Amino acid sequence: MTVLLRILHYAALAAFLAFALFPLFWLLKVSVTPDDLLYSEGVRPWPSRMTLDNYLSVLRHTQFPLYFRNSLIVSSATALFSTAAASAAGYGFSRFRYPGKSWVAGLLLVSQMFPLVIIVAPIFRILAPLGLTNSLAGLVVVYTALNTPFAAFLMQSFFEAIPKDLEEAALIDGATRFQALRQVILPLTLPALAATGGFVFTAAWSELLFALMLNSRASVTTFPSGLLSFVSKFSVDFGQMMAAGVLALLPVCAFFFLIQRALIQGLTAGAVKG
Amino acid sequence: MVRPDQGIPGRGALTVKRLLLAAVLAVPLATPVRADSTLRLVEVLTSPERTETLQALVAGFEAANPHTHVEVTSLAWGSAYEKLATMIAAGDVPDVVEMPDRWLSLYAGNGQLENLDPYLAGWRETPGLNQKALAVARTVGQTAYMLPYGFYLRALYYNKAIFRQAGIPAPPKTLEEFRADSARIAQLPGKSGYCLRGGPGGLNGWVMIGAAMAGSNAFFHEDGTSALNDAGWVAGANWLIDLYKEGLAPKDSVNWGFNEVVAGFYSGACAMVDQDPDALIALAQRMKPGDFGVAPFPKGPGGKSYPTLGFCGWSIFRQSMHKDLAWALVTALDDPGGNLTWNKRTGALPVYTNAAKDPFYASAVYQGWFEELADPDVVPTLMPTDLPGFAYFADSLVVRSSQQALLGQISPANMNKQWAAYLTKAKRKQAEMAK
Amino acid sequence: MSGRVLALAVEPYLYAAPSVLLIAAVMLVPLITGLSYAFHDIILLDPLSGDFVGLDHFRDLLEDDSFWTALVNTAIWTGVSVILQFGLGLVLALLLNRPLPGRRLVQALVFLPWAVPGFLSGLTWAWLFNPVIGPLPHWLHALGIMASADNILSDPHLALLGPIVANVWWGIPFFAITLIAALQSIPRDIYEAASLDGAGPWLQFRRITLPLLAPTIVITVLLRTVWVANFAELIVVMTKGGPADATQTLASYIFTLAFQRLDFGYASAVSAVLMLLLLAYAGAVMALRRALLEPR
Question: Which residues pair with B68 in a beta bridge?
Answer without folding.
Answer: B37
